[in-house]
Design goal:
Helix content: 40-55%
Structural class: alpha/beta
Number of domains: 3
Number of strands: 15
Number of helices: 19
Radius of gyration: 27 Å
Distance between the termini: 44 Å
CATH superfamily of the largest domain: Mur-like, catalytic domain
CATH class of the largest domain: Alpha Beta
CATH architecture of the largest domain: 3-Layer(aba) Sandwich
Strand content: 15-25%
């Protein structure tokens, strides 16, 4: 009987550890394999490790309480049952078993095997106690494996980077355009790539492949000798991230779309954000051109000494959009170029901020030899970037999908777009992330702004949206028109249940938190 109990307890322990390790490496991947960021995530989400703390407490009680094995066994079985019953919903971005993930898992398996051997070699009741401790600290297996593998991963990355540089060197006539900014960079990338097709065979980094290794992968897998322009989106969450990318691709031209408190939590300060984003402009050679958003006050106060062109909606920009007319069906506007040339445009996109992003793409395309007149048709053909004010029509409602990685400026613009529509206006949002010390202030402002536009609001997650709720109520928005949902499924169920008595439902989906939030 004792042997059967031991085997059952041991099997439960191993299953619990495997489940824990799989979840942990998924979170590590979402944290870009940064062990410091992942440890911060563990600290922030300590409540998710309740099972581990229970088992550790049981192990400590067993040590103090004369090695009672039943507490350990019960805790492990309870942990297993709760883990199985509390299995997380299907991930929005599932774990991808890349070569790096497989290497980390192999290292973790070797570490775990060593610990398991120690458990097997121990005598009762110490082996039960070791099982409890093994499970309790199993999340750190992945962190330790990632640290052990760091030199290997660095060597692998350096090999791929050298190969990417070699490929770029073999394309001497390739024009490389870097794009960065706190927000707007993905939209400008898509728009610019579409416009450049009028004259050039262009390649862009796909989706959100804006990290060093994502860009390297694009170069190694997709760049061909026939490509004439490479449009490279450059993302950053930490100081000097842009410099690292520029050292790889060496851009000829650069576009700085914006500066703002995006990823303030990881950057630490606005000074670090400004310094890092301007690393792209600093890397542009003297014979190149920097295109900067002249409407952004932070950019205007840090204009480069090298050649640059400003774009925007305000007076004084080298490329300026004016006479803007926005409707739910699209936008018309006029662009005045740096030489006084004027041209009227129309687009399917909605929102003034999309016009701003389009002007940036138009300015760069025009500089590269495409006339404003030749850009009219490409601008008309541009479709919304997925999850960035993307219109989705259903039988019962119009959905404005702006669910990708929202920020304070984007929230304001999304609300402006919602205000254009006639109908029962509903906002669904979990709020924004990585705002650091500005979290409460920015969410309060978001709530106050939403109160002036919306008829009903669904907040996803009580803790993260507390400041939005406060901003709504203190702006006179009735609490009866606010619903707090635990998750997005419950939120959408609530939206479908609303009567929509005044016209068609217009639903703005503002941000969709990634799995590790």
């Amino acid at each position: 009987m004792t042997t059967l109990l031991y085997m059952a307890c041991f099997a439960a322990c191993i299953i619990c550890v495997v489940l824990s390790v799989v979840r942990e490496i998924h979170m590590l991947q979402l944290n870009s394999y940064q062990h410091v960021a992942h440890l911060r995530w563990i600290r922030t989400n300590a409540r998710k490790y309740g099972f581990h703390l229970v088992v550790l407490l049981a192990a400590l009680i067993a040590i103090v309480g004369h090695w009672s094995v039943y507490g350990i066994m019960t805790a492990i079985f309870l942990g297993l049952i709760l883990l199985r019953l509390g299995k997380p919903h299907q991930a929005k971005k599932p774990l991808v078993y890349t070569a790096r993930v497989k290497r980390i898992l192999v290292t973790a398996a070797v570490l775990a095997g060593t610990l398991v051997w120690g458990i097997i070699a121990a005598k009762p009741p110490m082996n039960y106690v070791l099982m409890g401790i093994f499970y309790s600290f199993s999340p750190l297996l992945i962190v330790l494996a990632n640290l052990i593998n760091a030199p290997v991963e660095k060597a692998v990355q350096n090999y791929y980077i050298r190969d990417a540089k070699k490929i770029l060197k073999s394309c001497p006539n390739l024009t490389i355009i870097g794009i960065t900014g706190s927000y707007g960079k993905t939209s400008v990338k898509f728009y610019l790539h579409s416009l450049l097709q009028a004259k050039y065979h262009a390649l862009m980094t796909p989706e959100s492949f804006n990290t060093p290794m994502g860009i390297v992968r694009t170069i190694r897998e997709d760049l061909r000798a026939t490509h004439e322009v490479f449009v490279c989106e450059m993302g950053a969450r930490y100081l000097h991230d842009i410099r690292e990318i520029c050292d790889i691709v060496r851009p000829h031209h650069g576009i700085l779309t914006s500066l703002g408190p995006q990823h303030l939590e990881t950057f630490g300060s606005m000074e670090n954000i400004i310094e890092t984003k301007f690393e792209l402009i600093d890397s542009v050679p003297p014979q190149g051109m920097a295109f900067v958003n002249g409407d952004n006050e932070l950019i205007r106060s840090h204009l480069p000494l090298k050649p640059y062109l400003t774009y925007g909606l305000g007076e004084g920009n080298h490329y300026r959009a004016c006479d803007i007319s926005v409707t739910p069906k699209g936008t018309t506007f006029r662009v005045i170029g740096k030489n006084g040339e004027e041209c009227d445009f129309e687009t399917q996109l909605i929102g003034e901020h999309n016009v701003l992003n389009l002007v940036g793409a138009i300015a760069c395309s025009n500089y590269l030899g495409i006339s404003l007149e030749a850009l009219r048709m490409p601008v008309r053909k541009i479709v919304p970037v997925p999850h960035r004010l993307q219109l989705i029509e259903t039988e019962t409602m119009t959905i404005i999908d702006d669910s990708y990685n929202s920020n304070p400026v984007g929230c304001k613009e999304a609300l402006k777009a919602l205000a254009l529509f006639a109908g029962y206006k509903i906002l669904v949002t979990p709020g924004m992330v990585e705002l650091g010390p500005q979290h409460d202030e920015r969410h309060y402002e978001f709530g106050a702004d939403a109160a002036t536009v919306c008829d009903f609001i669904v907040l996803v997650g009580e803790g993260r949206t507390r400041s939005i709720y406060k901003g709504l109520v203190e702006s006179g928005f009735s609490p009866e028109r606010i619903y707090i949902a635990a998750g997005i499924k419950e939120a959408m169920d609530k939206v479908h249940s609303l009567p929509g008595a005044v016209g068609r439902k217009i639903v703005l989906l503002e941000n969709d938190l990634p799995d590790h939030y």
